[in-house]
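Module 6 notes. Inverse folding takes a fixed backbone as the condition and produces residue identities as the prediction. Think of it as a translation problem where the source language is geometry and the target language is the twenty amino acids. Below is one complete input and output pair. Work through it position by position during the lab.
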């Protein structure tokens, strides 16, 4: 410590902590000299370098009070209270030490002063944390149209002026000399029709003028010297006017006019015409313009429009094979299409809802990263993450692992900034998994979306939209989390929002499904009845008649007096409370949409119309009925089913009858099973009408729904003990959909070929194998798991003939399905198979010619 202290400070410290004893006679100078010697010895022994300090004379000291009397200092913290004020050299040292302290305090205060004011800090944080917004185009479309029309009018005036005075260049001496005495071909003077559109009149006058100016080379179709009729800006303005008038023939005539004038066609003009052709899906027009007016290779925008035209021309229920072929042809030529083209093709493939198209979308994504664009952009990443919510395999509802991998790759590895759509995609993929851990991960990502990237005022850059809330509700309904669903619904209706942000039909459908999957914590039949109570706990208050009355009042009347429903913080605790709350919600929807009377649901839903933008559809009614199927009796559900569709004026669809039939197949023992049989027979008559109508019009009901409906009705019959009728129903199904229909001899499409090649018109790197792609065209069938209940009842009744038939028909469907799978695995494209044989034959001929010569080879081919 002494090595780092100045000598004067060391003397002062030693003089204070070591007072001079009374029995030792040593002067002040002697003590100071001894202290200095000790300090020098300590410095010599220390290994630390000594610091240099300014001389004491440079340190400012305190001024005297009046100049005559010195200021008496108060004792310092190291000075004993009984010590007298020091004088002489020690006092001088004390003054210098105090001056050092004051100088240090001044420096500390100077360093602690605010460099920026509050306003300056706020401005700085506003600039640093501001949200980046896209700068709109400065050119307004309306102003551009007006400017183009003005340019075209000027062109018309100039052409009319030249028509009246005739161009002097036609009779100039140079033209006469170059003509070498040849007579001028006769050119008819155009007759301008005032009723014709402006751009049509301009084109007529321009073509007539070009005919007059092409006298230098009357035999050539295209002049060697460019003939400049208009400037490039005027040509582009004329092209835009033709396109805005939806006159594509005229726009193509403008390009033809430039070609006749030996002018280089501007890229913008050709792209404008191609964009209009691709928007309407005119593939012939696009390819005609590319063949006639394109000199060099197409630009990325033009190739994108070429593929886009093929996509628009393809129906939504088919795979765009022509678009994929054009896309791969650009790759073979060494000019791959831009990334947005691959994004459009992938989005179209996923919109077809075909399993083979979804598999091709993933294969095209991996192929693009291999041959064209190794680093996708945010839009393509978002499309693929959203695709994880609808996986290829039907065994899983989503693929959250792959979605999170793509999300990490995009945000962490590639460092791309996500968008609201990206957040919605990954939230939906995690929520649709139905697993609690991934649903919680979806809510965590939603919280991260709101908390991250806030500006200086705390506003988030990613505001949740309707898709975000629907994705969260999707996760809540799959795990039965009614608390979160009610919280989201309450937050939506808290403030009156616009149509884009208000509650719609999809949100209410998810809410009703959440009520369906919700398991109430309290079950009345498991409650212990306390003896001695006058009011016994039973199910009498929840009888079928009460539920029917409350169900019928869901469209016209209020709930009973004393049972005013309220949307409270605590979720419903019993099934009866669930039904009451759902009925009140549906009644409020009917009221706000003008289909019902005044609602009794108060609390946060009172006041303004919160559900006015909800559209009453069949799937909304199906979701509302599903709550009653789960939490109400079958008798009440039947009464509500036949009433609600008539009151709202909506026709039930196939899913409506299917879900009702499956509810009948789950009827409990006792009085519910006869009710279920009666209800199922009425439903089955309606179902057959829907099924036959779909087969007649060429759009049959989904095969899996047909299976479920037939199995549900068969189970209802079995539960009521009608085994012979159930057996006849199975035979009727086998006659309508025989096992022989499962055998499929269709060939594999060429774009699904798995032959290993380095260059070809199909993906070279795939993410899906053939056994992962399900077959969407499998007709309805019955497996043993569907017939197991009937088989057990037949065994119990010792009906051997029925038992044998059940075994036979289930095995017949099983083996037919196995044969279909084997044929699909062994299938190959016919053209590629023939090309492979031709390639093998050509290779054999070439190798044999080198070895045995032509004559011997000719003999071998003849004999073979």
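Target side of the pair, the amino acids:
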């Amino acid at each position: 410590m002494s090595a780092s202290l100045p000598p004067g400070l060391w003397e002062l410290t030693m003089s204070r902590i070591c007072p001079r004893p009374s029995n030792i006679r040593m002067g002040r100078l002697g003590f100071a000299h001894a202290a200095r010697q000790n300090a020098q010895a300590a410095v010599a022994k220390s290994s630390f370098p000594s610091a240099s300090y300014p001389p004491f004379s440079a340190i400012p000291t305190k001024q005297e009070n009046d100049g005559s009397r010195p200021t008496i200092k108060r004792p310092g913290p190291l000075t004993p209270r009984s010590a007298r004020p020091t004088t002489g050299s020690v006092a001088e040292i004390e003054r210098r030490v105090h001056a050092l302290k004051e100088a240090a305090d001044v420096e500390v205060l100077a360093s602690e002063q605010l460099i920026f004011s509050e306003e300056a800090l706020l401005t700085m944080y506003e600039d640093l944390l501001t949200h980046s917004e896209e700068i709109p185009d400065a050119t307004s479309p309306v102003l551009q149209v007006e400017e183009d029309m003005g340019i075209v009018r000027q062109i018309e005036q100039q052409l009319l002026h030249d028509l009246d005075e005739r161009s002097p260049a036609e009779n100039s001496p140079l033209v006469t000399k170059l003509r070498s005495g040849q007579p001028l071909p006769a050119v008819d003077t155009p007759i301008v029709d005032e009723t014709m559109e402006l751009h049509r009149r301009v084109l007529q006058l321009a073509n007539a003028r070009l005919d007059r100016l092409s006298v230098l080379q009357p035999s050539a179709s295209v002049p060697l010297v460019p003939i400049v009729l208009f400037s490039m800006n005027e040509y582009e303005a004329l092209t835009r006017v033709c396109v805005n008038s939806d006159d594509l023939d005229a726009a193509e005539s403008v390009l033809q006019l430039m070609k006749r004038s030996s002018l280089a066609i501007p890229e913008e003009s050709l792209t404008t015409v191609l964009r209009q052709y691709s928007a309407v899906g005119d593939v012939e027009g696009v390819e005609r313009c590319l063949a006639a007016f394109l000199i060099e290779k197409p630009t990325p925008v033009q190739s994108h429009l070429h593929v886009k035209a093929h996509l628009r021309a393809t129906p939504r229920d088919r795979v765009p094979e022509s678009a994929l072929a054009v896309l791969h042809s650009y790759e073979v030529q060494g000019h791959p299409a831009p990334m947005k083209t691959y994004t459009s093709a992938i989005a179209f493939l996923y919109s077809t809802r075909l399993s083979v198209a979804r598999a091709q979308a993933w294969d095209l994504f991996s192929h693009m990263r291999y041959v064209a664009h190794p680093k996708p952009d945010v839009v393509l990443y978002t499309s693929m993450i959203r695709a994880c919510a609808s996986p290829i395999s039907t065994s899983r509802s989503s693929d959250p692992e792959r979605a999170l991998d793509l999300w990490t790759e995009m945000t962490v590895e590639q460092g791309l900034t996500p968008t609201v759509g990206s957040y919605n995609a990954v939230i939906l993929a995690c929520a649709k998994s139905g697993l609690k851990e991934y649903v919680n991960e979806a809510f965590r990502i939603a919280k991260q979306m709101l908390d991250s990237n806030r500006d200086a005022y705390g506003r988030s850059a990613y505001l949740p939209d309707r898709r975000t809330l629907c994705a969260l509700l999707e996760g809540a309904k799959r795990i039965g989390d009614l608390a979160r669903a009610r919280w989201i619904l309450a937050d939506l209706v808290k403030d009156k929002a616009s149509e884009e942000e208000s509650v719609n039909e999809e949100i209410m459908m998810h809410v009703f499904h959440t009520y369906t999957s919700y398991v109430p914590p309290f079950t009345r039949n498991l409650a212990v009845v306390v003896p001695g109570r006058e009011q016994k706990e039973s199910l009498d208050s929840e009888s079928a008649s009460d539920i029917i009355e409350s169900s019928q009042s869901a469209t016209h009347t209020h709930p009973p007096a004393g049972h005013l429903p309220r949307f409270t913080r605590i979720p419903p605790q019993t099934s009866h409370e669930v039904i009451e709350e759902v009925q009140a919600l549906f009644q409020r929807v009917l009221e706000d949409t003008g289909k019902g009377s005044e609602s009794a649901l108060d609390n946060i839903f009172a006041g303004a119309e919160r559900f006015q933008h909800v559209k009453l559809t069949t799937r909304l009614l199906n979701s509302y009925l599903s709550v009653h199927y789960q939490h109400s009796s079958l008798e009440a559900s039947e009464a509500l089913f036949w009433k609600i569709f008539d009151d709202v004026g909506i026709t039930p669809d196939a899913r409506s009858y299917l879900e009702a039939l499956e509810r009948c197949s789950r009827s409990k023992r006792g009085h519910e099973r006869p009710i279920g049989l009666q209800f199922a027979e009425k439903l089955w008559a309606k179902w057959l009408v829907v099924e036959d109508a779909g087969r007649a019009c060429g759009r049959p009901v989904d095969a899996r729904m047909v299976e479920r409906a037939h199995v549900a009705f068969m189970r209802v019959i079995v539960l009521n003990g009608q085994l012979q009728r159930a057996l006849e129903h199975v035979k009727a199904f086998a006659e309508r959909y025989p096992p022989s229909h499962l055998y499929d001899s269709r060939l594999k499409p060429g774009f699904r070929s798995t032959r290993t090649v380095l260059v070809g018109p199909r993906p070279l790197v795939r993410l899906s194998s053939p056994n992962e792609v399900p077959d969407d065209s499998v007709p309805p069938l019955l497996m043993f798991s569907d017939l197991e209940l009937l088989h057990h009842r037949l065994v119990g009744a010792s009906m051997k003939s029925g038992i044998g038939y059940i075994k036979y028909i289930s095995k017949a469907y099983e083996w037919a399905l196995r044969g279909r799978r084997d044929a699909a695995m062994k299938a190959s494209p016919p053209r590629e198979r023939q090309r492979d044989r031709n390639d093998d034959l050509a290779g054999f001929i070439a190798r044999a010619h080198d070895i045995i010569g032509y004559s011997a080879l000719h003999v071998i081919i003849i004999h073979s």
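Reference fact for the lab report: Residues 271 and 302 are 6 Å apart (CA to CA).
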